[in-house]
Design goal:
Layout lengths: L1 E6 L1 H4 L6 H17 L4 E6 L2 H17 L5 H28 L21 E4 L8 H11 L4 E6 L4 E2 L11 E2 L1 E2 L1 H8 L13 H10 L2 E6 L3 H9 L6 E3 L1
Parallel strand pairs: 1-2, 1-4, 2-3, 4-8, 7-9
Antiparallel strand pairs: 5-6, 8-9
């Protein structure tokens, strides 16, 4: 059984690296791997705080020096900066898992990939979408029917609860309804529960996504074990 987890950068490195969380994640994953020899993990790691900080710096500096091409190249260059942040975070996660993860960080999910260990770690690939899309592509490749999306929100809401006090948490939602909430276009740093481009790909491939709070590892264990959990299922 392969568990694909889109591990939000806001969980791994909200500002700087959350070492306590990574210790707890490692211990939980190792415990499950030791209990079940057929279990494998794919962690696709996001950019988090470093991505946002470096992207904001890029925009601020180039606007300050009045670069003429800033509006033409802004999204692509911001995406590349975010991608490099995902690769930094992913390399850290790969190193932490040691012998469980013998292969290099995956940066192109479309290439032929052999799963050589029990843990695989992947990062951002190219501009135009977030690492969520890479998680969907790897789920397709390794025939995993579900992507677990871990972020700093417990559930998907009917609207942004920070802006709309009447927003309601959602337990189950169809891809059609979800895509009406998040739209179809990706911009670097877009704050949505799951990347719009990845959502379209998942819907087309028949992959379900479970959105849940990344810091609640006991809840993650329930998701993996098929028990009742707190989160939103999109299918």
């Amino acid at each position: 059984m392969i568990i694909v987890i889109s591990l939000g950068g806001s969980i791994v490195a909200p500002d700087t690296v959350d070492k306590e969380y990574l210790i707890a994640l490692y211990k939980m994953a190792e415990n499950l791997l030791l209990k079940n020899n057929n279990l494998k993990f794919i962690f696709v790691v996001g950019g988090g705080g470093p991505a946002r900080a470096w992207q904001n710096s890029y925009v601020s500096v180039t606007e300050s020096v009045m670069r003429n091409d800033i509006h033409i190249n802004k999204n692509e260059q911001s995406d590349w900066i975010g991608i490099m942040a995902t690769r930094l975070n992913a390399q850290l996660v790969k190193a932490i898992f040691g012998e469980w993860c013998p292969q290099d960080v995956i940066v192109d999910p479309t290439k032929e990939i052999k799963f050589t260990g029990r843990v695989m770690v992947a990062a951002g690939w190219k501009p135009g979408f977030s690492s969520d899309n890479d998680a969907v592509l790897l789920a397709e490749k390794f025939k995993a029917g579900t992507v677990i999306n871990l972020s700093n929100i417990e559930k998907v809401y009917s609207a942004d609860p920070k802006k709309d006090p009447s927003a309601k948490p959602i337990d189950n939602i169809s891809w059609k309804e979800f895509r009406l909430l998040v739209g179809d276009e990706w911009t670097p740093g877009k704050n949505v529960p799951f990347d719009p481009v990845a959502s379209g790909r998942a819907e087309k491939s028949g992959i379900q996504v479970i959105c849940a709070a990344g810091k609640d590892l006991s809840n993650l264990e329930k998701i993996i074990s098929g028990k009742d959990f707190i989160g939103t299922t999109i299918s």
